[in-house]
Design a protein that fits this description.
Elements (H helix, E strand, L loop, with lengths): L4 H16 L3 H24 L7 H6 L3 H24 L14
Helix pairs in contact: 2-4
Length: 101
């Protein structure tokens, strides 16, 4: 079943609200998880003999592995956008955590 544009926008908005409600440690943990999955997907790409493909060629492809890589990249981008929104220009790759002493 194909998603309508309205359903796609509603799902993206729901994801954005969910990410905005996350604590910094949750965002960092989720990014770590996505980094590991992305690394495994890249390993699979290399194992499939596609290690020399450029990123923009991979994300334009329609095969399951390329779609999975595009999915992971989108989720990572959403989290990085939230970090930039909270931290401002020059945001680090992970949000700083408060340490209670």
């Amino acid at each position: 079943m194909a998603w309508s544009d309205a359903a796609r926008r509603a799902a993206a908005e729901a994801r954005r609200r969910k990410i905005q409600a996350m604590r910094p440690s949750q965002i960092n943990k989720r990014l770590d998880y996505l980094d590991k999955r992305s690394s495994r997907a890249n390993d699979a790409l290399i194992k499939a003999g596609r290690g020399r493909e450029r990123y923009h060629d991979v994300v334009r492809a329609k095969d399951p592995l390329a779609l999975h890589i595009r999915f992971l990249a989108k989720r990572q981008s959403e989290l990085r956008d939230e970090i930039a929104r909270r931290y401002g220009p020059g945001a680090p790759s992970r949000l700083p955590l408060r340490r209670n002493r």
